[in-house]
Please model this.
Amino acid sequence: MQIAILNDKILPYEEVGHEYLDRGLFFGDGVYEVIRSYDGRIFALDEHIERFSASLKAIEITKVDINQVRDKIILAFAKSNIPNACIYFHITRGSGPRNHAGTDDLEPNFFLTVKELEDDTKMKTEGISVITYPDQRWKRCDIKSLNLLPNVMAKREAAKRDAFEAIFVNDEGFITEGSSSAFFAIHQKKLQTSPLSANILPSITRKFVVKAAANISLEIVDNSLTPQQAALCDELFIAVTTKDIVPVVKFDDKIIGDGNPGQYTKALAEEFRKFTIL
Ligand code: PDD
Model:
């Protein structure tokens, strides 16, 4: 008899629900997106859909109608009636007996939640602390994969050390990005961030930060920094869909600037806000 145990319940294997046999659980075999709304309007939906399509393609999940995904996002958001919402969704390759390669008959599983965004006023006005952490991830971080164990471990270490984010440093000693955010430095009126590559996620927020930077005449430099260089910069910040721009005032115990959010970071945040009310 084939058997399964779910927590404390023993049951025939055949009676295990398909959600327990999801390849997302067994292998992290799926991709995800996080979108947000500002005051009742979904922000950058096309960009997120485009990146999601690219992630699906990269891991060869082919049986997905991306227009149906878009419709589901819009429907769920409308039903939620939450003006400032965080929309999370993922697609896995499907459910089936544990087998690494999977079979052609698998039907992708879709999962989505719409939740209220947390209030981030305090962290934006006071700034956050970050730590550095070794980048132990795979070589395709441009895919928004459900495999997030290195990110989880990094974020847990940050939390233990009273920091909000962990900033990954690769084997060559350069900063790549945050465990769940893009990372930026401003020094002598230049905005610096890692160049887009397979080593980082092509952040949607980054795209708008770069536009905002051009609008306030900051020079943009695609340049990876070492932690030592970052610690000496005038200003630092992270950028992520759920919070847009968050100033960093402490970097591995080193105070950045005068310990308060910097003037250009604040100006960028203001400029960014304009994109969200269009
Ligand atoms: N994370 N880099 C990583 C590793 C990320 O996980 C994220 C976002 C970003 C920023 O990307 P964007 O600007 O498109 O949100 C950069 C999401 C929000 C998460 O995992 O919850």
Remarks:
- The domain at 121-276 is CATH 3.20.10.10 (D-amino Acid Aminotransferase; Chain A, domain 2).
- The chain has a mean pLDDT of 98.
- The radius of gyration is 20 Å.
- The longest strand covers residues 30-38.
